[in-house]
Specification:
- The protein is mainly alpha-helical and 138 residues long.
- It has a domain of 56 residues.
- The chain is built from 4 helices and no strands.
- Helix 2 packs across helix 4.
- The protein is elongated and about 85 Å long.
- The model has no long low-confidence stretch (mean pLDDT 76).
């Protein structure tokens, strides 16, 4: 039979870690420490831990708290984007991975915003590279 235990003594003091916070390292610094080199391999389907780490790092760089839920400082538009249940589930998995790794709990919209921004930057860089390598018409 289960009985509820009631503690009647004084409340123990809360333990707080006052040591220095470990320094965050960027994915590029981490890759350099491992001797990794960039490659043109793209992940299909489930994102790997390095991809999730880069999303998490970008999110932490961009989020700024103003009292409530931290926001993205350069966000000027709010767009409603229809998502499938599969997409929402995948975003929730990313939120869970970032929460386990950092303790931060970003919203699904914040994660989607970071992923969209990263992908658009990749497309812009690819277009610029294509422009610079295109032979000039003379």
């Amino acid at each position: 039979m289960k009985e509820k235990i009631v503690v009647t003594g004084p409340k123990p003091p809360r333990i707080t870690d006052t040591g220095p916070q470990p320094r965050r390292i960027s994915p590029a610094e981490f890759a350099a420490a491992l001797g990794a080199e960039p490659c043109d391999v793209r992940l299909e389907g489930d994102a790997g831990p390095i991809t999730l780490a880069s999303v998490g790092v970008e999110l932490l760089k961009r989020l700024r708290s103003s009292g409530g839920r931290p926001g993205l400082p350069d966000a000027t538009q709010r767009c409603k984007v229809p998502l499938s249940e599969t997409d929402v589930s995948a975003l929730a998995d990313i939120v869970g991975a970032i929460e386990r790794a950092t303790g931060a709990r970003p919203s699904l919209g914040q994660i989607a915003s970071v992923i969209l921004r990263m992908h658009l930057e990749t497309l812009r860089e690819a277009a610029q590279e294509k422009e610079t390598t295109r032979p000039s018409k003379s």
